[in-house]
Design goal:
single chain; alpha/beta; 40% helix; globular
Length: 201
Amino acid sequence: MARLMHSAALKARSARIYRRTPGTRRFFAEIPNRVLGLKTTATGQIWVGDVTYLRSAGRWRYLAVVLDRHSRRVLGWSLRSRRDLALTRSALNRALLRQRPRPGLIFHSDRGVEYSAYAFRARLAALGITQSMKRPREICDNAFIESFFHSMKSDVIHGCTFDDDRSLNLAVRRYVRRYNRSRLHSSLGYLSPINYERNAA
């Protein structure tokens, strides 16, 4: 093989060899799903977070959202060009500005590195927020926020072209405002998230 490749002026290129990092699986699995079968009775008991992909001018942009699971209200969101810790922390900080968490709040997310990062975990711990993560390979463990992303993409993303980040940001901002104020949910008695919270209050 080497002789034939040499005569044809071919060079081999090997793929990178994957080496298991000791402790990686344990690191990502040490935070359990703490909301399995848990029902909320009021806002501020369980927040859920996740990240989705959106296209702007042919490039991927990343949207992180924090949602109150009880009222389905979007509390904070952040849209950026990189999927990293700064993205998820920005969405969390915006949620904290809107609603001060009470003791016992659980923050539930997937097992992405943005939520598993020590800095994010330390931020939650400093606020007294208990962290929860979906189980590996269980796609329905974060269904509430996945449902929000599905609704948003069906309503304002699919079929639309965004020429720049400003137009995409504006579309997300307008949708979140309309979603919180006027989008009706059958699970909330056909009320919007904000009206549901007002009635509960």
